[in-house]
UniProtKB/TrEMBL annotation:
Native organism: Porphyromonas crevioricanis
Name of this chain's protein: Ribosomal RNA large subunit methyltransferase I
Gene Ontology CC: one annotated term: cytoplasm
Domain of life: Bacteria
EC number(s) reported in the record: 2.1.1.191
């Protein structure tokens, strides 16, 4: 670790690192032995001079994201190969990768001991996002390793970091292919259903893979039900409701671009289906105007209402209001799938908001399932911040 900068912590600030928490906050740092740039590697030492590991530096609140707690580790091609292979092997061992399901998250940041890096795979194309300059600096190298670690399955890598790198970072990045070039219209599969992942224009990497298990669960509840999929985006839940024999499915999103994607994805799987309808409309406005009892399965999967704890109060009010209207409107014997993807909102706080909503709507509500993110979005046990998706499947009498 001699050829890289040495960062020393203030006294007693090594405790969280000894419990393998991968972040060092700026206030914990006593000093760095030389001038360094954002994204550089630093070797981290306690105030007593004990080596603690190695990480990527950034001049921000989270000043270091740890890559390794092995003080003998060298961060080179072999290191990235080892980490990426471990991530791929985990997905393979989960039985996630098959012809029927060729879409999965290959790298989930801290959950794969690769803080600052997200890689989603859609068939032969990987979509990669760097959230730190440290990861940005090795993006080319990582992209080149992906075909190797996936046994040739990944043939092209689209780099989509123009909006994920820190604003202060002094880099100009354009989204585009950095390895191979898949200009074909790419169709990917989730549990047997097809969709177009739109990494160019879509949100995040183009498709929300984190709802895979919950969509599969929804399919089991869809038979004969009239389904309302609020905040549908690319229509993931709608596809599985249709596959589960829903009587009808209405997909609602305020973005007409999202509605176009949902319509395209439905047509890809259910040509000429008369069971699906898509509406570009604000969710609250739509819910207000529907009749009571018009639907017996409602999905509420809104965007993160709270990006940080400061706006928590308003976010909880938002969840309460949204869920209250859904409880008021759903038919007797109906099921509500309700979610929060706000990392800042805890599982307990979300459940409390839904509880208040049920009471406000004066409905009898029972919890059938407690949902979370799927196994290709693993949560590092030392980094509880990695848990963000929470959901409840509720039976409403
Ligand atoms: N359920 C989706 C993901 C939802 S992402 C899936 O399974 O893939 C959140 C979506 O909410 C986005 O598509 C966004 O356009 C939409 N949205 C945001 N605010 C909205 C509002 N007020 N009314 C309706 N849709 C909204």
């Amino acid at each position: 670790m001699n050829d890289i900068a040495k960062l020393t912590l203030k006294a007693h600030k090594e405790e969280s690192l000894k419990r393998f928490h991968p972040w060092i906050f700026s206030g914990a740092i006593a000093g760095i032995d030389r001038e360094i740039d954002e994204g550089d590697l630093v070797a981290v030492y306690s105030a007593n001079g004990d080596p603690l590991g190695i990480g990527h530096f950034a001049p921000s609140t989270i000043a270091v994201r740890m890559l390794s707690f092995d003080t003998g580790e060298t961060i080179n091609r072999d290191f990235w190969l080892k980490r990426l292979s471990a991530a791929y092997k985990l997905r393979e061992s989960l039985g996630l990768i098959s012809n029927e399901n060729n879409s999965y998250r290959l790298v989930h940041g801290e959950g794969d001991n690769l803080p600052g890096l997200i890689i989603d795979v859609y068939g032969d194309t990987a979509v990669m996002q760097a959230h730190t300059l440290g990861m940005h600096n090795v993006a080319g190298l990582i992209a080149e390793l992906l075909p190797e670690i996936t046994g040739g399955a990944v043939q092209a890598v689209y780099y989509k970091s123009a909006n994920t790198l820190p604003h202060m970072a002094d880099v100009e990045v354009e989204d585009g292919f950095i390895f191979g070039n898949n200009s074909n219209v790419n169709v990917a599969r989730e549990n047997g259903l097809q969709f177009y992942p739109d990494w160019k224009r879509g949100q995040k990497t183009g498709f929300f893979l984190d709802q895979r298990d919950n969509r599969a669960l929804l399919k089991a509840y869809a038979d004969g039900r009239r389904v309302l999929n609020m905040f549908c985006y690319t229509g993931g839940f709608s596809l599985f409701a249709l596959a589960g024999n829903a009587e009808k499915v209405v997909s609602v999103d305020s973005s007409s671009k999202a509605i176009d994607l949902a319509v395209r994805n439905v047509a890809l799987n259910f040509a000429n289906s008369t069971r699906h309808q898509a509406v570009a409309e604000d969710a609250f406005r739509y819910l207000e105007q529907i009749e009571k009892g018009a639907y017996d399965l409602i999905v509420l999967d809104p965007p993160a209402f709270a990006k940080h704890r400061k706006v928590l109060h308003n976010a909880l009010k938002g969840y309460r209001r949204l869920n209250t209207i859904a409880f008021e409107k759903i038919a007797s014997g109906g099921v509500v799938f309700t979610f929060s993807c706000s990392q800042a909102v805890s599982r307990e706080e979300f459940r409390q908001a839904v509880f208040s909503a049920a009471a406000a709507a004066k409905r009898e509500v029972r919890i059938l399932h407690q949902m979370t993110q799927p196994s290709d979005h693993p949560i590092n046990i030392y980094h509880p911040e990695g848990e963000y998706l929470k959901g409840l499947a509720l039976y409403v009498d």
